[in-house]
Specification:
The complex is a heterodimer of chains A (about 260) and B (about 400). Chain A has about 260 residues and is α/β, with parallel strands linked by helices. In chain A, about 30% of the residues lie in helices and about 25% in strands. Chain A folds into two domains: about 220 residues, Rossmann fold (3-Layer(aba) Sandwich), CATH 3.40.50; about 30 residues, no CATH class. In chain A, strands 9-8-7-10-6-1-4-5-11 form a nine-stranded mixed beta sheet, sandwiched between helices. Chain A has a two-stranded antiparallel ribbon with strand order 2-3. In chain A, strand 4, helix 2 and strand 5 form a beta-alpha-beta unit. The model of chain A has no long low-confidence stretch (mean pLDDT about 90). Chain B is an alpha/beta fold and about 400 residues long. Helix content of chain B is about 50%, strand content about 15%. The model of chain B has no long low-confidence stretch (mean pLDDT about 95). The chains are: A alpha/beta (about 260), B alpha/beta (about 400). Chains A and B meet through helix 2 and helix 5 of A and helix 1 of B. The complex binds flavin-adenine dinucleotide (2 copies). One flavin-adenine dinucleotide (FAD) binds next to helix 1, strand 4, helix 3, strand 6 and helix 4 of chain A.
């Protein structure tokens, strides 16, 4: 058995985001990059599978040079091999283009019995790539998984749906996207970090996989980011003075909640 | 206005990818597992023993060693581990310093194969805790005058004496005890928990390092076999060599404390409003304090980084280690005070980390050679004149 984890290297959720001069990208200069938190759940699940059944873990990313550091982090946590498809500048934020590259990379480095992705990538938060990769590979997928059992040739997955939990079975190979709650990701160990340094990362460009990145980014693009804007600054808030006439203050609060905030 | 990067001298670029990853891993662990509880632990005077297996899982014990499948970190990476632990609390950093530099290091350096095989894997896994007994109630800065004795007795030894201020003393499974033998030579012994005549009692009422255990060790005719003696250790230079290892880590660790108080002060100064609706950070006096802290931290970081690289090259000297330990502890102590001032009344309560760091740093300033001792070491280095013994008036 072999597993693959699709890993997106994304801006740290704690970073202060600024819009770049071009207007349709974020300013990358002072950003710290991290393994997308949902992909940490995906990786942890793959490592647990390895611990239980000896299934080696390959981590796969499509992105610029810096994404290699994300692969090292995954190796430090216990992944066995890493594949870096270099590129992604022109296909930024285009889920289908990304999925096409990833599906080609999976074909090249596979076969895998199970492919893990995050439910969504922090930053673009699209929740598309995992399912698209599955379609392109023509295998089943289960998204938003919070509990997973892997049997012989099939999985049983619990996924959160509106107001309940859905229990799904699917044959292997398949794609599973990880939701918060699936597991508690481990910290890398210092030993893992030092060992990760020695693992050779396999590098490709999309052309090596038979993918024309220029076409995906140009005429073939399915999504273009036009403009980004920061949310409006928060206003200072209103403080109602309630010491003298609490009843009047409560009435005023109810009125504001209904008429201004439209919360009740 | 957004604050500019604090790393004005691009010290980040002096670190390798692995070193940064090591640092960030420990930083995240401290943020998630230590910071939410540390004020309570310090208040209750409790060492969080439950964290020992987690620290072992991260490979924090003996992290510079390569043997026994240990990580073999660079000295800079090890220093960054110390920095991040002490950014959380000096007590946790002290625990790791003692386990690694004062227990695993002497066993690896002077121990027999049997001693190494018995202790290193267990200490690395956190299944055993170690302590280091050099200081005595009457001899701190001058350990060479120690009274603890080791008498030859048939095929073993009898140890007699007292050790004081021993980190991890009462929770240790193995104590590295230094004692003088019949010939006046200082020797090291691995005394195990439960050895006859060996007891440990905690120092009570500490205002400092409250989240760490500090104990007195009593060796009352404590019989130990010859196999418990560190065969390679002879002379005071051995325990002093251990201290050089530990001091190196402290030089980094203390900067973690300085970073914690500095960042707390910077955040507070930008949000606390006084006079004319403006944050106190808009006052020149407050800015001067913040600049002092940032400036000294930057200088100290460059010093410990350089020291780490020299150590990796096998070129670091104990004099350099003394200088760095002395400087970092001083910087951290001053930062804690300045941060306390900036926090006003809030600086005295445990909703903010300031007083805990301020009290902790008093121990760090004192142990592993007081600030004064390092001044004298540097003074001797500069002048060639040792000034440890006070001059005695002539009796002519
Ligand atoms: C709670 C929720 C509600 C939604 N509601 C709506 C709705 O009402 N209407 C609607 O139209 N849509 C909705 N959506 C869907 C969503 O907003 C869009 O469909 C979306 O436009 C596109 O996807 P993403 O998949 O690009 O990939 P991402 O979400 O960015 O990534 C998912 C995963 O793919 C992998 N991956 C991504 N990029 C890479 C890479 N470069 N290298 C390696 N692996 C990678 C990672 O494993 C990652 O975790 C919802 C989504 C969610 C989660
Ligand atoms: C929390 C804590 C944990 C500790 N953990 C350990 C441990 O694990 N193992 C261990 O062995 N020890 C440990 N120590 C002991 C520590 O190393 C000693 O406290 C330290 O060496 C100072 O010794 P002292 O307290 O006896 O002070 P003293 O030596 O009595 O010094 C008192 C003062 O006199 C000054 N002074 C002394 N001699 C001179 C001189 N010649 N010239 C100028 N000034 C001088 C000193 O600088 C100091 O200011 C610990 C201490 C503390 C507080």
């Amino acid at each position: 058995m072999k597993s693959c984890v699709l890993m997106a290297y994304v801006p740290d959720t704690a970073s202060v985001i600024k819009v770049a001069a071009a207007g349709n990208r974020i300013e990358e200069a002072d950003i710290k990059w991290i393994v997308s938190p949902y992909d940490e759940y995906a990786l942890e699940e793959a490592i647990r599978l390895k611990e239980a059944k000896g299934a080696p873990v390959t981590v796969l990313t499509y992105g610029p040079e810096r994404a290699q550091q994300g692969l090292r982090e995954c190796l430090a946590r216990g992944a066995d091999a890493a594949v870096h498809v270099k590129g992604g500048e022109g296909t930024f934020g285009d889920a289908l283009a990304i999925a096409k590259v990833l599906a080609a990379a999976v074909r090249k480095s596979g076969p895998f019995d199970i492919i893990f992705a995050g439910i969504q990538g922090v930053g673009s938060d699209n929740a598309l790539v995992g399912a698209m990769v599955a379609e392109l590979l023509d295998v089943p997928h289960v998204t938003g998984v919070v509990k997973l059992e892997i049997g012989d040739g099939a999985i049983t997955a619990h996924r959160e749906i509106e107001g309940g939990t859905e229990v799904v079975t699917a044959p292997l190979p398949c794609v599973v996207t990880a939701q918060k709650g699936l597991n508690e990701p481990r910290y890398p160990s210092l030993k893992g970090i030092m060992a990760a340094k020695k693992v050779a990362i396999q590098a490709f460009v999309p052309a090596d996989l038979g993918v024309d990145e220029g076409a995906l980014a140009g005429a073939g693009a399915t999504c273009r980011w036009k403009a980004l804007a920061l949310p409006p600054a928060k206003s200072g808030g209103v403080i109602l003075k309630g010491e003298e006439d609490p009843a009047a203050a409560a009435r005023e609060l109810a009125r504001l909640l209904r008429e201004q905030a439209k919360a009740i | 206005m957004p604050a500019a990067s604090l790393d004005l001298f691009a010290i980040e670029e002096l670190l390798s990818d692995e070193e940064r990853m090591v640092r960030d891993t420990v930083r995240n662990w401290v943020r998630e597992r230590v910071l939410p509880h540390i004020e309570a632990w310090a208040w209750e005077e409790r060492f969080p023993r439950e964290l020992v297996p987690e620290m072992a899982g991260l490979n924090l014990f003996g992290a510079t060693l390569k043997e026994y499948g240990l990580p073999g970190l660079t000295n800079v990476a090890y220093g960054l581990v110390m920095q991040e632990l002490e950014r959380g609390d000096s007590g946790l950093r002290s625990f790791v310093s003692v386990q690694s530099a004062l227990v695993m290091h002497p066993i690896m350096t002077w121990g027999s194969q049997e001693q190494k095989d018995r202790w290193i894997p267990r200490l690395a896994a956190g299944e055993a805790v170690g302590c280091f007994g050099l200081t005595e109630p009457d001899f701190g800065s001058n350990p060479g005058a120690m009274r603890t004795r080791a008498f030859r007795d048939g095929d073993g030894w009898v140890l007699g004496g007292e050790k004081a201020w021993i980190t991890n003393g009462s929770i240790a499974d193995v104590a590295v005890v230094w004692a003088r033998d019949d010939d006046g030579v200082v020797r090291g012994f691995l005394v195990e928990r439960g050895a006859p005549g060996f007891t440990a009692v905690d120092h009570k009422g500490k205002y400092s390092l409250r989240a760490a255990v500090t104990s007195q060790l009593v060796l009352a005719d404590c019989r130990v076999p010859e196999s418990s003696r560190l065969p390679g250790a002879a002379g005071l230079k051995c325990p002093l060599g251990c201290l050089t290892q530990a001091r190196y880590g402290i030089a980094w660790g203390a900067l973690g404390s300085a970073l914690a108080t500095f960042h707390a002060a910077l955040d507070y100064a930008k949000t606390r409003v006084q006079f004319g609706g403006r944050p106190i950070a808009s006052h020149q006096i407050i800015q001067e304090r913040l600049v002092w802290m940032a400036n000294e931290i930057t200088k100290a970081q460059l010093m410990v980084w350089r020291l780490g690289r020299l150590k990796d090259e096998g070129k670091a000297t104990f004099v350099q280690v003394s200088q760095a330990k002395r400087n970092s502890c001083w910087v951290a102590r001053e930062c804690a005070r300045l941060a306390r001032e900036i926090h006003g009344a809030n600086g005295i309560v445990n909703e903010f980390p300031i007083m805990r760091h301020m009290m902790n740093i008093e121990s760090v300033y004192t142990y592993e050679g007081t600030h004064d001792m390092h001044t004298l070491i540097l003074g001797e280095h500069l002048t060639g004149i040792p000034a440890f013994m006070p001059p005695i008036e002539s009796r002519e």
